Amino acid sequence: MKIIAVYSAKGGVGKTATSVNLAYTAAKSGNRVLLCDMDSQGAASYYYRIKPKKKFNRSKLLNGEFYGFIRGTDFDGLDLLPAHFSFRNLDIAINDTNREKNRIVLKALLAPLAEEYDIVFLDCPPNVTLLSENIITAADCVVVPVVPTTLSLLALEQLLKLVKKVAAKKKKILAFFSMVERRKLMHTSIMDKYREYPIFMQTYVPFMAEIEKMGLYRRPVGSTQRKSVAAQAYELLWQEIVERRLTK
Amino acid sequence: MRQPGRERFEADRHARIDALLKLLGKQFMVEESESSVENRVYYDTFDWRLYRRKMIFYRCGSRLNLMKFSGRPLVSAVGRNRKTYFWWDIVDEALSETLRPVLDMRALSRIVSVTSTINEFRVMNDERKTVARILLQSDAVDGAGKQTPAETVIVEEIRGYDAPYRRILQNCTGLGLNKRGNRSGAEYILERSERVPGAYGDKFSVDLDNSITLGEAVSRICAQLLEDMKENRDGIVADIDSEFLHDFRIAVRRTRSLISLLRIVLPERMTGYFAAEFKWLGSVTGPVRDIDVYLLEKDDYTSLLPQPLQSGMGLFFEELEGRRGGELKQLQTHLCSERYEALVEDWRRFLDNRDGELFAGEMMVNCRDYADEMILKRFKNFIKAGSAITDASPDEDLHRLRIRGKKFRYLLEFFKSFYEQKQMLVFLKHMKKLQDNLGDFNDLSVQQELLNKKLDSLRGKNLQTIRLAAALGGLIAVLNDRHDELRHQFGATFADFAAASNKTLLKQMIRSDRSARRGKR
Hints:
CATH superfamily of the largest domain in chain B: Hypothetical Protein Pfu-838710-001
Distance between the termini of chain A: 14 Å
Mean pLDDT of chain B: 89
Mean pLDDT of chain A: 91
Oligomer: heterodimer
Number of strands of chain A: 7
CATH superfamily of chain A: P-loop containing nucleotide triphosphate hydrolases
Shape of chain B: globular
Number of domains of chain B: 3
Structural class of chain A: alpha/beta
Order of helices and strands of chain A: EHEHHEEHHEHEHEHHHHH
CATH class of chain A: Alpha Beta
Largest sheet of chain A: 7 strands, mixed
Shape of chain A: globular
CATH architecture of the largest domain in chain B: Beta Barrel
Number of helices of chain B: 18
Helix content of chain A: 40-55%
Number of helices of chain A: 12
Number of domains of chain A: 1
Strand content of chain B: 15-25%
């Protein structure tokens, strides 16, 4: 089982769109996939039209009693653990669990899922907290959407600092340019400057109306417009992740 | 983690499906999402080797699939469309190696072809999220004419949505739909084929009760054997695999053994014709079987030889395969001849004729009494003949003992339903051990003889002939060693069988309920 976290300290960079569409693409290519919506806003759950069951909450998650709350999406091979409002304080709760081992809480919680799933995606909230440390420790690969702007690059730098702090391997991080508008000079010049860095993937995802419209259709783009530019961008992105991090 | 549920219901009338969809429409949003049509051709060996292991093999388009009855897929691979498949016909290694130990030398042939239409309905909640799926599957057996297709309603749970799933199941039972229960879809489909799944290939057995007359029992046993012959004849004519002929010959031998039993009580003029004709059937089926035995051992024989001699065997087997073609043609002519048809017809009439010899005079004696007596007699004779064999006895004596043993074993098998099953099983197991020794010994004699003949017939000095001669020589030497070894083992194996405990076991079995039966009659 491989754990892939989609993470950025900055909001609005397309994290949820990335996890929702990558999870769909991974399942479509025959993997058994679980998408965990770790963001209390529950946007990924919303896209898949899934609401958490009434008895679900943060402590159920942290006690490892969450298997019964995983729900099937409308797509074969793709399940989702919905977010809950109580996830907003997840980092505080993790902090309370066990001081010695609080960085590996998430990793331990996910381990038993290996029998059931090939790939687990974590859609992460935009912050730098103990939860982020947990996510970086647990993940085999951290996919970071970067809008080609200075603020977004700053967030990537912060993440690299965090990686160093938790003594994780820098190789885990795989960034890609997200919401790219080629008509914007700043976007193209930043991309030109950074895309050769090994941390960046070659595939980028353009800013597309069809991705924004996911909020209306509430389905991954690949399921409504398989041949669209957006759907193909996510497919290429997935292939690149597989080639660079999932195959030895 | 609990796996999502999947329940299948029989829908005997289409009206019920309509009613179900209507009812669900009041509680959920129901939307037809997809429909598909697929054709599946199901295969198994003639003796149901997959069915017995709860497995199923089918071809759908260009894919060959092996799965469990439960629906769990085992292996799936791309493969050609064929009427029959041996395991070695399948290119995909994972699939062929899974089938290999199960099929052995038997071929998969078509059992039934089914065209399934599947309509999928999504059951959704207020968020328009799918909370369950309903599949309507209509399976029409190809070539079944106007036979109505089997309609199945399949309800699939989506993980995490157990409540709507339970509600749909309640609706189904409320409407009087019957669960398909533990029977899998595949089993259900096989049952719609012309053959009875699993019926052929069980150990030979005919249920007889203690009061049955000898004639009636013979009639029933022979009718069963005749049925076996008829079923296997078609497989020989179509040349599906070697075992049709093997089983056919066993049925012929058993029949001949029973006829020889009748000689004692029926006049020669009655049994003579049938004895002669079944002997004829035995002899015309011999040549192909002899070749088959070699071909089945091909890999084994080749591996017995050291590497440098192996290439010579190729030629030998090629020649055998060529000869088999000619022999098979002759055999097929015999099996499609008027003589064969007449024999089957006459035999059937003889067995069925209630006013005939089987149901009068000496044949009206109690079968159990007769069986008791014959089994003890043949056992005694067998032990006597076996005990007389010493290390100095000629091989011929062992071959004769083998035939006596076979007749004795047939007798036990014909009448085994009279006796205590456990004791019978134990005794037959001992018997088999001895017969295996005698059988292998005989096979090795016959094979050496044929190889020697072949060696004698070789002429010329070309390299191929020399290689073949070397291979044959090598093989004869190896087989001769094995032959000697078996001969050497005979004494101990026979002594085990002739042990006092085994004699007591047989006597106990024969006499177990004799006094009770005497009382009844």
